[in-house]
């Protein structure tokens, strides 16, 4: 057993060292690091494991066996659990408010929203080293509405982190548009309402813009989530509802993209399983897909320059849609290394070196 585990670990470290060599590391960086850590921790680990009747090599073997379970089940389950932690916090704040004789009827929602926003911001910064660039581009006037259109990854974690930042930094006036099926998940309706998430009917979106809110939406929606991949193609099709709103209310449209958003979670795209999942999606309009991941990939949200409407030279809806799509593609091409790589994204998260945020500079140099 010991020799088998040693050979397996040595082979895996040799493979990873070859990958990391492309990032400028020494040839045996991981192997040497593993040896030093093993030598340092062995006196502290072998004694308690020996008292339990366990061997270090056996424990390492068990970890290797359980690794697929951790990637496919445990990490996604932890993320899903965090949503219900938010739901618990919301109901706790609501219950405490109802015990009080003071306060506005909606103040508990705002308090719960701030508490949950702090929780999601902390998660993003600790696990993903989350950053946001371009927040200063948004209107600072509480009465000025805007449209923020973002690229939809497998799991739109970046939207949750972005909403948390907008709640804490931009007057708490952002509203996000979500798919209908989320409102039918047990316990999610209250949580989504507290977070200012709406289904996205035309009337609700118009009301949000009339009140001066930032409207955060993904034109590609679940279709982009299913049909795009680690090459980050934009799949908006003929969805121009956001463009109609922008033309009607003369609001600026900001393209929003998060670097490495598809390197946190991935769908299992094995044929023929993937083709069956796409057929189920087309029939029921529900994302039936197996997901794995939860990787600590570096996430950086970029808010692009606004596509503004000139009152003296108005754009048609289709023209505006094409212009915004091109702005999104340019933003992705400039900020996302292609093709997407989970290993590179994790390396960016934990490296202490300066990582270039502009891929166009890297390509030209």
Q: Concise description?
A:
This protein has helices spanning 2-21, 29-51, 56-99, 107-127, 157-169, 188-194, 202-210, 221-227, 241-249, 273-284, 317-335, 342-350, 359-364; strands at residues 131-133, 146-150, 174-177, 197-198, 214-217, 253-259, 265-267, 291-293, 300-303. The protein has 365 residues and is of the alpha/beta class. The strands form 2 sheets. The protein has a 7-stranded mixed beta sheet, sandwiched between helices. A two-stranded antiparallel ribbon has the order 7-8.
Largest sheet: 7 strands, mixed
Strand order of the largest sheet: 1-9-6-2-5-3-4
Q: What is the approximate shape?
A: globular
The total strand number stands at 9
Average of per-residue pLDDT values: 79
How is the quaternary structure best described? single chain
Low-confidence stretches: none
Report Rg. Answer: 23 Å
Strand content of the residues, in percent? Answer: 5-15%
Which structural category fits the helices and strands?
A: alpha/beta
How many individual helices?
Answer: 13
The helix content is: 40-55%
Q: Cα distance, first to last residue? A: 50 Å
Element pattern in H and E: HHHHEEHEHEHEHHEEHEEHHH
């Amino acid at each position: 057993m010991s020799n088998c585990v040693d050979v397996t670990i040595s082979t895996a470290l040799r493979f990873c060292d070859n990958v990391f060599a492309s990032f400028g590391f020494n040839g045996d960086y991981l192997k040497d690091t593993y040896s030093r850590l093993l030598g340092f921790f062995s006196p502290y680990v072998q004694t308690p494991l020996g008292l339990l009747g366990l061997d270090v090599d056996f424990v390492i073997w068990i970890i290797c066996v359980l690794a697929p379970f951790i990637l496919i089940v445990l990490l996604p389950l932890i993320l899903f659990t965090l949503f219900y932690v938010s739901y618990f916090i919301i109901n706790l704040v609501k219950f405490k408010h109802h015990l009080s004789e003071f306060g506005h009827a909606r103040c508990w929602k705002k308090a719960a929203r701030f508490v949950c926003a702090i929780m999601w911001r902390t998660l993003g910064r600790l696990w993903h080293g989350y950053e946001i660039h371009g927040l200063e581009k948004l209107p600072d006037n509480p009465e000025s509405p805007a449209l923020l259109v973002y690229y939809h990854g497998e799991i739109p974690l970046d939207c949750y982190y972005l909403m948390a930042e907008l709640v804490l930094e931009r007057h708490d006036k952002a509203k996000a548009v979500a798919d209908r099926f989320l409102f039918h998940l047990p316990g999610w309706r209250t949580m989504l309402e507290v977070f200012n998430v709406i289904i996205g009917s035309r009337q609700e979106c118009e009301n949000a813009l009339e009140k001066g809110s930032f409207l955060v939406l993904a034109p590609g929606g679940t279709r982009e989530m299913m049909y795009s991949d680690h090459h980050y193609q934009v799949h908006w099709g003929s969805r121009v509802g956001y463009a109609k709103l922008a033309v009607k209310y003369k609001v600026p449209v900001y393209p929003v993209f998060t670097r490495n958003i598809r390197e946190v979670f991935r769908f299992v795209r094995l044929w023929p399983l993937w083709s069956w999942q796409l057929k189920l999606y087309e029939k029921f309009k529900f994302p039936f897909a197996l997901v794995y991941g939860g990787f600590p990939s570096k996430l950086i949200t970029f808010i692009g320059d606004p596509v503004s409407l000139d009152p003296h030279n108005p754009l048609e809806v289709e023209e505006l849609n094409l212009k915004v799509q091109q702005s999104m593609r340019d933003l992705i091409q400039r900020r996302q290394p292609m093709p997407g790589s989970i290993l590179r994204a994790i390396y960016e998260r934990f490296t202490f070196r300066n990582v270039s945020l502009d891929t166009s500079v890297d390509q030209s140099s």
